[in-house]
Amino acid sequence: MSVPIAGVGMTPFGKHGELTARQLFAEAALEAFEDAGIGPNDVDEVFYGNFMGEFAEQQGHSGPLAADMAGVTAPSTRIESACASSGAAVRFGVNRVRSGEVDVALVGGAERMTNISTAEGTAALAAAADALWEIKQGITFPGAYSLMAQRYFHEHGGGREDLAAIAVKNHQNAVENDLAQFQRAIDVDDVLEAPTVCSPFGLYDCSPMSDGASAALLVSEEFAEEHGLDPEVAITGTGQSSDRLALADRVSMTSTPAAERAGEAAFSEAGIEPEDVDVAEVHDCFTIAEVLALEALGFYEQGEAISAARNGETTIDGDLPVNLSGGLKAKGHPVGATGGAQISEMTKLLRGDHVNSDAVADAEVGITHNAGGTVASCVVNVLEVVS
Amino acid sequence: MSDARDAGYDDFLDAVEAGEPYYLESPSGNGWLPPREVDPETGERELVEKDLPETGEILTYTITNVAGPSFADDTPYVVAVAEFGPVNVTGQVRGVDHDEVDIGDEVALGVGRNETEDERVVVFEPV
């Protein structure tokens, strides 16, 4: 069942100084209300994504807080699935509207990360990994993805130059996007010569620490009709899947079965195949993550997406433009806001009011892929132009 | 960090230190590190302790230069996943130049301490 997106909102991603997550979310939500032409009193339920509020702001129980800051009195629940928190929040909202019990769901999320040190942020992000078998061994988040990248090179070939092309592409896509943290083009040498974070990743293989928030208003078709709304884009399929938290416990470290299952479920609900997708926003928290996502979603066979960006297949003028927003890499990655931001950016890309919409002027089908941890959580949503 | 023990995990490290590392095997033959109450592949609950092979093989590794506060004084250090028969274990490679570590290297399992907090870590050393 199709769930219209009545409105979207998003703060710029980046460094917001003294602004708290609650204020950031309010800003995104108020923009979504304005975009939709409805108000806080219309909301029946809120799903708010946030991952590391306890680490960064000593703030748990942030569902009611976020709703209150947006002027909403409806029931509100915080959804935590690491970096897939707001993707999962979107999915909860979609399913509540589909159930018929909710006419308007406010979904999205926020994260504040730049108020703590890089070391503290690194520790907070690592909490998405297995506390016993990974964190206690010194695994960091870049480290976990580095393990996947190193194994990928071993099994399938490819190297740092291939990954660098992904970072270059996503930075280029963000140059004109005023919501992006890094509106700056880089070249392959910048990536290859940057300081090493965890081999084989340099600084430019990694998404940054960011502050930011995202919001979307999902409505029933009945509500849209009764209130004279005419949403141009709807979520037509949603899928979610889980995997074992620890990389070492998985059958493969070079594939992401949770993304495969989430993608299959979402595509099946929408009645589409990978070849029907015109544009994609995927979870490129690290450059290798974009490769794994494109393979899991069926756009490439395993071992083949490594050269997609380098070959120009996923660039803005390629067959399948990927991360036209700049992706997590350049748009930024306030983790609890990222899944909702993918929805916001994709909605605008399909509606025609995104700065990069002209590149995909005929696009009718877009997908978002939002991953948590090393893809122990994954949510895939299919968005389509419906009017 | 508190001094509280984590059941399964600390028992495993004790066993490694005693020279008797083990894993948990289900009737189907699947192997798991503790703690496990059930084989997540099959749902079987009859898990028994089996001897872990003495040596393993590095499947992947990374040299970590930027760490969280718990490992801040340990950088750079090498984290690896190594295959010991039916289970894969995550730990730190020691006793070899970082540049020499490679996929396929044979390693033995041990327990060490991290420099920053003197906490126990799983250690792999070249055979």
Unreliable stretches of chain B (pLDDT < 50, length at least 5) are: none
DSSP strand count of chain A: 11
Tell me the structural class of chain A. Answer: alpha/beta
User: How helical, in percent, are the residues of chain A?
Assistant: 25-40%
CATH architecture title of chain A: 3-Layer(aba) Sandwich
Instruction: Indicate the proportion of strand residues of chain A.
Output: 15-25%
Total helical elements of chain A: 13
Low-confidence segments of chain A, given as residue ranges, are none
Q: How far is it from the N-terminal to the C-terminal residue of chain A, by CA?
A: 16 Å
Strand content of chain B: 35-45%
Shape verdict of chain B: globular
Strand order of the largest sheet of chain B: 4-5-6-8-7
How would you characterize this protein structure?
The complex is a heterodimer of chains A (387) and B (127). Chain A is α/β, with parallel strands linked by helices and 387 residues long. Chain A has one domain (3-116, 208-385): Peroxisomal Thiolase, Chain A, domain 1. Chain A has 13 helices and eleven strands. In chain A, the strands form two sheets. Chain A has a nine-stranded mixed β-sheet with strand order 3-2-4-7-1-8-11-10-9, sandwiched between helices. The longest helix of chain A is centred in the first third of the chain and has 16 residues, at 21-36. The model of chain A has no long low-confidence stretch (mean pLDDT 97). Chain B has 127 residues and is mainly beta. Chain B has one domain (9-126): OB fold (Dihydrolipoamide Acetyltransferase, E2P) (Beta Barrel), CATH 2.40.50. Chain B is 7% helix and 39% strand. Chain B is built from one helix and eight strands. In chain B, the strands form two sheets. A five-stranded mixed barrel of chain B has the order 4-5-6-8-7. Chain B starts with 8 loop residues before the first helix and ends with a strand. The interface between A and B is large, with 35 and 37 residues.
